[in-house]
Design a protein that fits this description.
Layout (H helix, E strand, L loop, with lengths): L1 H30 L7 H35 L7 H28 L7 H7 L2 H15 L5
Helix pairs in contact: 1-2, 1-3, 1-4, 2-3, 3-5
Length: about 140
């Protein structure tokens, strides 16, 4: 029973984390089209900062912590190839989030050179990883 509660919270934290990973690049799409001297530019900085500090980072940490507890309970998953691939995808999502934070710092310095098209493109990255992770966890394919 304890396991199911932890698993439920893991999924809740994961959803919050994914929402932040999908929404932050969308904010960058709009932010990149605004003049650096406009008041809207500062509003976007505030929105991005709050999303990162209040939702993205805490949700990532709580997802990782609850996942670690689940892994401690079911440590045999470490020997499953599908789980190793899933874990690699999660690590890549953490790197992706770090990159999004780096982009925020570039906006904060008012030195963004990337286009709206670039941010629309990178906005698709977490969706691809989410699909891969869900397929791996649900199907548990025999990968060798």
């Amino acid at each position: 029973m304890y396991y199911l509660y932890i698993k439920s919270f893991h999924l809740i934290f994961l959803i919050a984390w994914m929402v932040s990973l999908l929404y932050l690049p969308r904010l960058y799409v709009y932010h990149s089209g605004i003049s650096i001297i406009s008041s809207s530019y500062n509003l976007f900085l505030l929105m991005e900062k709050r999303l990162i500090k209040i939702i993205a980072i805490p949700a990532m940490i709580l997802t990782f912590l609850s996942g670690s507890i689940l892994l401690n309970i079911q440590h045999e998953l470490l020997y499953e190839n599908y789980f190793i691939l899933k874990f690699l995808c999660v690590l890549l999502l953490i790197i992706y989030q770090a990159y999004l934070i780096f982009i925020y710092l570039i906006f904060k310095k008012r030195k963004n050179k990337k286009s709206e098209k670039f941010y629309k493109f990178i906005n698709e990255i977490p969706t691809i990883f989410m699909i891969i992770i869900i397929l791996l966890v649900v199907l548990k394919p025999n990968l060798g």
